[in-house]
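User: For my dataset I need records formatted as: sequence, then structure tokens, nothing else. Please produce one.
Assistant:
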Amino acid sequence: MTRVITATVLSTFLVVSTAAAQTPAAPAPSTPAPAAQAPAAVPNPGPFPADARIAFVNLQAVVQNSQLGRAGQERIKALSDKQNTEIGAKNKELQTLQQEIQSGSSVLAAAVLAQKTADADRRGRELQFLQEQAQVDLSALQNELLEDFGEKVLPIVEQIRAERNLWAVFTTGDGSGLAAINGALEISAEVVRRLDAAK
């Protein structure tokens, strides 16, 4: 059970984190940033049934609504923004050099043209390496945050399970395969409350 919850926590946080910080190959044109995504609502339809033996937690809602989850998303966004700025600058340098080569192909000396072409090839490889390294760094940060999130959330879920004498706690959200549940069995708000209180 713990392994399943751990895998679900990790995959949920990874999905949320990845969605929050995608590193594009080329910089997007300057447009105003979209409004921040509102945290997912944590439903609270009533008191938890005293005779319940199962509960449900929406880990995506826990990530989006908890201070720990939001702090992790902010760290991922900050790293992604920094990487996008660096990649954008390198990409602009490469485009400028390629334009110089294209516009000067008929007027530049062969040696100068060959040098600029070699420089463009080198910068292209540097840009590709920078993009690959950005993905590695982003994945490393996501893994670090996932581990930290799992270490803090799973004991809270287990504590709630033990306190309420539950047989199991299932995850809800995207891809959970659940068609319908009694909303009173949802413990996400309690997990968020305890997680934030533990800080």
